[in-house]
Write a structure and sequence with these properties.
330 residues, mainly beta, Porin, 61% strand, globular
């Protein structure tokens, strides 16, 4: 990671602290995060210390923290400050130890809507509601069809039938670059998964974004991005399904995504979860597909084991990944 990127990240964190300075801390949560992960690649015929690709920030072995601070005024809870960071081992990077800033946002709750500023999820598709930071199965953002996190601001409002969200972000993903790049996105959804057992959303996005992989800037010049997508999540007893269909144009070429993840929870309290994930993609005028399956087992309240098998048709590669993830409140 460059010194310029580190300075920009530090400046963003300082801005969040300044914005939160006029509010009072009400309560806080602090978690320790430890991760061990490795994968065997059939294409490289080697064991690699990351789950999917070398440049993607997750999953890599590392240690980190997750801090959440609730903020209050004199009479009520008015917001949340969230910061999550880690130090990981980057097997193929120029520097083997890589600092990562994941969550870094201030979320305020005025009466008309919720507003956030900092490093958070853009209002774009399934990735905006699926927390993927500890999972090994890749979501649309990890496949290059959204942003896991992005620098900017956004707002959202809940209604009895569902909700709406909008965001204006840099379109550079994990690092912050300002080269005339931006991403405007909006999502409207019906149903709340935790309450109604279903949620269906529609997203629109337009911008000039940067091609980044993790903290690596692949192309220094922004390119156009336009997309429309429909996503759906549904839970029936111990069966969970999530899907997204996306169409759009990327740098003048058509792109498409058909994503489906299905999971079955077994054993007491769903301690064992079996998932399958077929994905069909089109980018740069060519179609590709991947097939994946995963196992998740809760060893105890703090320790989770995960296993993934993924075949990528474009790379003619099969990956066998294993992860141990420790997440404990201190």
């Amino acid at each position: 990671m460059s010194d310029m990127t580190l300075r920009r990240m530090a400046a963003g964190a300082a801005l969040l602290a300044a914005l939160a300075g006029g509010l009072r801390a009400q309560s806080s949560l602090f978690y320790l995060e430890l991760q061990a992960v490795a994968a065997y690649s059939s294409a490289a015929d080697a064991v690699e210390l990351f789950s999917l690709t070398a440049d993607d920030i997750m999953q890599k072995p590392g240690i980190g923290f997750d801090f959440v601070q609730r903020l209050s005024a004199r009479t009520r809870d008015v917001g949340v400050l969230a910061v999550q960071g880690r130090l990981v081992y980057d097997q193929k990077g120029d520097h083997r130890l890589q600092p990562q800033l994941y969550n870094a946002y201030l979320r305020l709750k005025p009466k008309f809507a919720n507003i956030w500023i900092g490093h958070n999820r853009p209002a774009l598709g399934l990735s905006s509601v699926l927390d993927n930071h500890a999972l090994v199965l890749p979501d649309p953002a990890m496949l290059g069809y959204s942003f896991d996190r992005d620098w900017g601001l956004g707002l959202d409002k809940d209604f009895s039938w569902g909700g709406v969200a909008a965001s204006l972000t840099a379109g550079s993903g994990m690092p912050l670059y300002l080269k005339g790049n931006f991403l405007a996105a909006a999502r409207v959804f019906e149903g709340v998964l935790a309450r109604d057992n279903y949620s269906v959303g529609m997203s629109l996005a337009r911008g000039n974004i940067l091609e980044t992989m993790g903290y690596t800037l692949v192309d220094p010049e922004p390119f156009s991005w336009t997309s429309v997508s429909v996503d759906a999540s549904y839970v029936w007893r111990n069966l969970e399904n999530r899907a997204e269909i996306l169409f759009g144009r990327r740098d003048g070429a058509s792109m498409s995504l058909l994503f489906w993840r299905s999971g079955l929870s077994l054993l007491e309290e769903g301690r064992l979860k079996v998932e399958v994930q077929p994905v069909l993609m089109k980018g740069a005028g060519a179609w590709n597909y991947s097939l994946a399956t995963g196992l998740t087992y809760l060893l105890n309240a703090d320790l989770t084991g995960r296993f993934m098998v993924l075949y990528d048709h474009e790379r003619r590669e099969a990956r066998f990944a294993v992860q141990l993830y420790y997440y404990k409140r201190l």
